[in-house]
Design goal:
Blueprint: H1 16-21, H2 30-54, H3 58-61, H4 63-74, H5 83-110, H6 117-147, H7 162-173, H8 182-210, H9 218-248, H10 255-266, H11 275-305
Length: 308
């Protein structure tokens, strides 16, 4: 009888595929492609969240009631208002932040130094901050288009698509409108990316260590991305509310003024205004983005290395 070899769960499971992964530099457009796939799933939840964060007392009526009202008043298509801006945001912010993060991780692995969680957090935060510099104009158009139907008719902008939004923004508000809420958005995206991508990699490593599930199993990817979305939603919620208020405004207003007004009218409850729809949006969006990204890499490895 052959001797059975027992391997402790805590022991690293190194396979030929895993050893090859460390040497592969994946195409950087994978992040943009995965983000575009994810936005098709998450856009309705994002729209509900924006409506709740901008409409007075919106958070009190709940995400389900907000969604039902949108469908009743605007039809199912109403849940996809601003989709062109959402896709443009994925091609700018989503693509650049993931590409930069992957490049920084690849460079760190090549140096053969241990990549710690604090290092991942710093790399992810920097990637999100830089990504927001490219994505803010489409972010502004996205928020405005999602919120437009909730405004009185005389105040609606009626953007047809993201390019029309940019043309009208330049014509009526000047180039400064493209940077409205830029720095709060950059900090918010830095926090979001750090709590999303870095925590995903950390949770993925822990789940691989604590379970006997295959390292590249979708179960690992889905579980890690779900946990990462919980962390990301909670940490970024206050900045998300401020960003939405800044970008939906027709004139420039300070962060201090927004925080003061929100605290005066709602107390500190505003910090988690729209948390539920944010999580409902961020959960599927995070899972779809990261699982799609992992599948991009898996298919690339099959063609590149001839293995899974």
């Amino acid at each position: 009888m052959a001797e059975t070899k027992i391997v402790p769960l805590s022991a690293p499971r190194i396979t030929p595929a895993n050893s090859k992964q460390a040497e592969i530099s994946y195409p950087r457009w994978f992040g943009g492609s995965a983000s575009c796939m994810a936005v098709m799933v998450s856009h309705p939840f994002d729209l509900i969240k924006v409506r709740m964060q901008t409409v007075a007392d919106g958070a009190k009526q709940g995400s389900v009631r907000t969604g039902v009202q949108i469908i009743q008043n605007e039809g199912v298509r109403g849940l996809y208002h601003g989709l062109s801006a959402g896709l443009m945001r994925s091609l700018t912010y989503g693509a650049s932040r993931i590409a930069l993060y992957e490049e920084l991780k690849y460079s760190a692995k090549k140096s053969e130094k241990p990549v710690t969680t604090p290092m991942l957090t710093m790399m992810a935060a920097a990637s999100g901050f830089v990504g927001a510099l490219f994505g803010t104009p489409s972010d502004i158009a996205n928020i405005r288009m999602q919120n437009d139907r909730s405004l009185p008719i005389q105040h609606r902008r009626n953007y047809k698509h993201v390019l029309d939004a940019w043309v009208q923004m330049k014509r009526h508000e000047g180039w400064r409108s493209f940077t409205q809420g830029l720095w709060p958005n950059c900090f918010r995206c830095g926090i979001m990316t750090a709590s999303q991508l870095a925590s995903y990699d950390t949770f993925k490593t822990l789940l691989r260590k604590w379970t006997s599930v295959s390292a590249e199993s979708p179960v690992i990817h889905i579980s890690a991305s779900l946990l990462a979305s919980l962390v990301a939603t909670s940490i970024s919620s206050p900045m998300d509310v401020i960003r939405t208020q800044l970008m939906s405004a027709s004139k420039r207003v300070s962060v201090l003024r927004i925080v003061t007004d929100l605290t005066r009218s709602e107390g500190y409850r505003w910090v988690f205004r729209g948390w539920a729809p944010s999580f409902v949006r961020l959960g599927p969006q995070t899972i779809a983005t990261l699982v799609a990204l992992e599948q991009h890499k898996r298919i690339y490895r099959i063609f590149k290395c001839g293995g899974d």
